[in-house]
């Protein structure tokens, strides 16, 4: 299949692009800047999701769209409500319009576990609006779709917008992690590799016009995550749990009652959380310690 991945230069999008290529698909990455992860067997197109003429050009000879472009961080959306509506919602509608005209076989949308939650504010509102528009386009034009509701992702290629990345980087740089919350916040972390593999799996016809939740296999409280990181860094890491006034994030579950139920896919075999965290520590350590010696070695063993 010929697949276009919008936002394919980003954290999740780049991994999904790789998983699609590994599965034998012809992948074109579309993003506002060139992907640092672009493979020789992938094509790159640079452009703005709000430029309709570019979208029309990108969709020529494309069968499937994976739509990841947009503002993906809850706090960024909270600080930029107008940009969130313009990029996330309008950008998606423009892509849907171009998809209908190009006779796209499936529109696969990167939604969120927050989509029918009372948390997330403008981020949640944008995902709700996009899913609603996708449903409308399907009803009016028979556009096949799949909405992937991702949970808490972690893994290589993440950045400061990712919670696990922020905690690990803070610990490596400062020898201390200050976590704002109660520590009882519960998450089903999913490694980005597992999420990418499951994202390819939904190309099966049984996932047409479905809502799929992609989260991890195990529930973990933040206080247990912090304890794991402390032990992995030879107990030389100081951990502090401080009060938080943030209301955008959920404590135990993002779900609120809503009749639009979705399926859930679990990736088996999957990346073990401990191994995944070690991988993150190694990558972030290398990133912040590129060309100079430092005292960070105390955290990674003696």
Describe this structure in a few short sentences:
The protein is of the alpha/beta class. It is built from nine helices and 14 strands. Strands 3-2-1-4-5-6-11-14 form an eight-stranded parallel β-sheet, sandwiched between helices.
What would your notes on this structure say?
With 302 residues, the chain is of the alpha/beta class. The chain has a domain of 189 residues: NAD(P)-binding Rossmann-like Domain (Rossmann fold), CATH 3.40.50.720. 38% of the residues lie in helices and 20% in strands. It is built from nine helices and 14 strands. Strands 3-2-1-4-5-6-11-14 form an eight-stranded parallel β-sheet, with helices on both faces. A two-stranded parallel sheet has the order 7-10. Helix 5 links the parallel strand 5 and strand 6. The longest helix has 21 residues. The radius of gyration is 20 Å and the shape is globular. About 3% of the residues have low confidence.
